[in-house]
Structures are given as C-alpha cells and as structure tokens.
Design a protein that fits this description.
2 domains; 19% helix; Spore Coat Polysaccharide Biosynthesis Protein SpsA, Chain A; UDP N-Acetylglucosamine Acyltransferase, domain 1
Length: 313
Amino acid sequence: MVLAAGLGVRMRPLTERRAKPVLPVLDRPLIEYTLQRLARAGVTDVVVNLHHRPASVRRVVGDGLRFGLRVRYSYEREALGTGGGPRKALGLLGEGPVLLVNGDVLFDFDLRALVERHRRAGVVATLALKPNPDPARYGPIVTDRRGSILALAGKPRPARGRVSLFTGVHVLDPALLSRLRPGPSDSVRDLYAPLVAEGVRLAGVRVKGAWYDLGGPSEYLAAQRRLLRRRRSGRMVHPTARIAGGARVTASVVGPQARIGAGALVSGSVLWERVAVGSGATVRGSILADGVRIAAGESVVGRVITKTERGRL
C-alpha cells in the first residue's frame, strides 16, 4: 500500500494543485519511482489511498498496468493518517504480509530482502531503518542487538540501544490494523508503540541504499541536487525544453516545454513544466512551479514560486 492521502502541508505552496506523491523528481512524478520498485520486488497488487488532490494521483497512476501492477484506490473524506488510512483499506489488503510505503519518500533499497527478513524473523511487523543523523529532527527508533525495537520516538518509554530513523517503509501483518479504531491514527504512536509496551516483538532492519527525505521544499530541492551529481553533465534538461544562446544551466532540472532566454543563468534549481526565464535573468537555488514566468533581467535567489505565491526556501 502506498500512502498518498496526506495534505502535503510542509511542502506548500508546491502542493497547492497536486498531491505531494506526484511532485516531479528529475522530471518524473515521485510515485512512479515507488511503483517501479514495488514491481521489481515482485509485488503485483497495490492499494493507493487518496484525499488531497486525488485526481492528480489518478492521472499519473491510472490502473497501474504500465508499471506491471494492479492498482486499486481507497478514498478518504478526511485524511486518516499513517494508521487510519491502512485501517480503512483493510478489506483490500488480503491476508499475507503487506508492504506499507509512505508516498512522499524516495528510496532505493531491496524490498524483497526486507520482506524475507520479516518472514524469517517471525514478527508481526518489520520497519526499514537508516542511520539517524539528527534524532532531534527524526524521532529515534531504538533497537537492541537482535534488532528488536525498544522505543519509537521515546514511546512507550525512553530506551538505550542502537538509534536509527524510520524510513516510512515497513512490512506488517494486516490483521494488526484491526487493533486501531476507525478514524485518524498514526502507525507509530497508535499501533507500534502500544505493541512494544505489551511486550510484542517488532523488528527493525537497517537497510542499504539511497533514501531521501522530501519533507519540505528545501529537502525536495536538496535531494534533486544530490541526484544530479551522479549525472555526467550535472544537469537534466527535458528534450522539449529550449535554452537560448548564451544561457547557462548548471546543477539544475529543467522541465518539459520550459524556455530559458538568451544570457540567462539557472543554477542549483528545479524548473517544472512550461516555466519561462527571461533573457539575462538569474535563478539560483530556487524552485519554479508550472507556468511560472521570470521577467528579463530579474534575479531570483532561494525562492519557491508558483503562479499564485512566492516564498523563501
């Protein structure tokens, strides 16, 4: 199940017109990367929950056939959270272990291996973990030497052990979800922490591979700049974009049908579809959403700009 019903509050104003899981990452909707990784792991059936801007998700995902998947949807009149969303979709999830994936993270680790570790451990839930560089920012998951979870963000009680962060990817027995009351709930606070308090063993597995937090605009921009460093050119320009003579584009993503005027500079930025940067303009460390126009000679530094709002990163 891919969780795609969140309001995307931290990503505003970029989520005004589309759900966070379909924001473009290197010119492709984020959720496409997730669905492809699920298909590679042998997943055949996926449930996607919807609430904020649901049509934007349906347009990208459709029935899932182009990803080799069968996709069904669970619509929420109110956002039900990471626990309540799966709880509502329980009837669609079957009886075997279920992979739950937050729709707003970009990752590249072995999901088959994670599911196999879950099966071998004989536990009711297994959380994919990464090293935690900032426990004050990412609620720490504390495990013992066996990988058993002792505490999640200090709940049910503080504990000592190996400190990790939760990637938003986990495997669980769907029957667990029936413990939750219908309505909004959180998988960590309302499901996993009470289980640990009861002495139920949950597993935490440190996974290898890339993981990017796309929490807000600054993280969204930083993740794409890191991804661009792997490319020989250090940039990505869509085939339908046009860059005029004398313009320079470095460490940036330039989306479909974008136009960069003569002598303009675009550096360390992400430009969505149909963005126009006028001649001699400068765009540094910024995100320009669909259809934004930057006037000739204008300087834009460290900004997030949509057609209706301008803000700072």
